[in-house]
Amino acid sequence: MVNRLPLEEMVLSGLRPTAAEREHVCNLGKKLLEAIAGSGKAEGMVVGSIARHTWLRGDRDLDVFMLFDPSLPREALEAEGLALARSIAARFTGTYHEKYAEHPYINATIDDVDVDLVPCYNVSSAEKIQSAVDRTPFHTRYITDKINGLIDDVLLLKRFAKAGGIYGSDQMTEGFSGYLCELLVLNYGGFTGLLKAAAEWRPKTLIDPENHAKKEFDEPLIVIDPVDPRRNVAAAVSPDRMAEFVELARGYLESPSSDFFTLPASPCISQEELGALVTDRGTYLYAITFPTPPYIEEVIVPQLKRSTAGICEELERNGFSVHHAHYVMKPERCMFLFELLVAELPKVRTHSGPPLWNRTNADKFREKYISSVLPGPYISQARYEMEVPREYTRAKDLLNSPALQQVSLGKHVRQAFANGWHVDEGADCWHPEFADFIGSFFSRCSPFVRIRQKK
To answer: CA angle, 156 as apex, 154 and 159 as ends, to 5°?
Structure first.
């Protein structure tokens, strides 16, 4: 018998799917499986949290896999799998479209349920997988066989992680996937057992449910996949998300509260509030916006991260100190946001040359600049220095310049920049579609601090 706090029982009453909701989703899953079987081309299987009964009320995400014969060539799997998925979706709805992971699949909205129809190989064991998605049916079988009695604990953990903003293994969140949550609950025997253990976690924490790891990993949290000894289920969890989970676990154990299960409000900000905030801070805000490249988040977000770092390096190299920078991908547009400590600089800067002891290079430096109208070359700290004109005296000019295309941008970001980008300054950085992102940019705090501040 699991001993739960009264507040946890209260929270669970709002997390379990209703009987009507469960019947609605399960009936749709049954119809889709019948349609797949009727095609004679593949075997159908419901996977994910719905199959394992670990889905939260309102999260109507139905993952249906179409398992094809392993002898089918990869190109044929993609072509035939996509054709079958498209034909089945068309029988139920007119709202569907292609998405891409390791290979294409169909996403459809059917009777208010978000459905993914995914082709994969019907392999006999996880050791024989031919694509990453082939592993998923084995995950479902593993969890389904062991999760009885702990389903409510998984629901609590998922909501706990969602409320903390650390749920999801996507590139923007870098947090805890549903499968990882299930494995953690299984490993520690429940929600409370997990929190007690997590409160003492350190980097390189290793969890190996089947004691069969065949590879070493460098990630901060390592959870060996029970069906694949060479895979870390927690590979997506960043050091910050792991630390935030540890902080949340400690905070909840010290002072349990329903606030730990309450989804945070979106920190939107108005244009007027943004203008007043930037003025009060005395910093300088710049936004770069451009059309979102036509690829999935898993492809674009890492490029946004790399591009933001590259632009920051270019700003710093030109003397514009970056206080904070971040990025976001929206359906239509992406945004880079930079808060700088300085926006304008003098027309000249100091350019350091080689030490005098490096005679050859020192002589070259002196002769290169000896006719300059600016002071120098002169000797400082036993090396030549020279005053030279600054290429960009305003940060906005740099951000609008072709130099931005020469920094370390991601491939698809660079392609998008080839068609132009837009730079805004101060309150003009505000756009309705980015109000939540800008709000969160200026309201940074850890999940536990946010909960404490609410009280």
So the answer is: 105
Predicted TM-score (pTM) of the model is 0.90
Of the candidates 287, 293, 285, 274, the one whose C-alpha atom is nearest the C-alpha of residue 333 is: 293
What is the amino acid identity at position 185? V
Residue 55 to residue 128: CA distance in whole angstroms: 29
User: For the CA atoms of the chain, what is the radius of gyration?
Assistant: 27
88: part of which helix (H) or strand (E)? helix 74-92
Quick one: DSSP state of residue 254? H
The torsion of the CA quartet 404, 407, 409, 412, rounded to 10 degrees, works out to 60
Phi and psi torsions of 69, nearest 5°? -60, 130
Element counts in the chain: helices (H) and strands (E): 16, 15
Instruction: Give me the DSSP letters along 296-356.
Output: -HHHHHHHHHHHHHHHHHHHHHTT--EEEEEEEE-SSEEEEEEEES-SB--SEEEEEEEET
What are the φ and ψ backbone dihedral angles of 124, each rounded to 5 degrees?
-80, -20
pLDDT score for 373 = 81
What's the rounded Cα separation, in Å, for the pair 199 and 247? 7
CB 447 within 8 A of CB 166: yes
Calpha distance 451→455 (Å, rounded): 7
Nearest to 413 by CA among 425, 424, 422, 405: 405
Alpha-carbon gap, residue 100 to 296, rounded angstroms: 7
**Tokens in use for 109?**
């909205």
Give the whole-angstrom CA distance, residue 263 versus residue 35. 37
Q: Which two tokens stand for residue 373?
A: 């109208």
* 330: number of Cβ within 10 Å: 14
Tallying the residues shown for the chain, one arrives at 455
* 217 close to 235: Cβ distance less than 8 angstroms: yes
| Distance of alpha carbon 135 from the chain centroid | 22
**pLDDT per position as a tens digit, 124-169:** 988 889 988 999 999 999 999 999 999 999 999 999 999 999 999 9
Supply 355's token pair. 């030490």
Question: Which tokens go with 453?
Answer: 């501040």
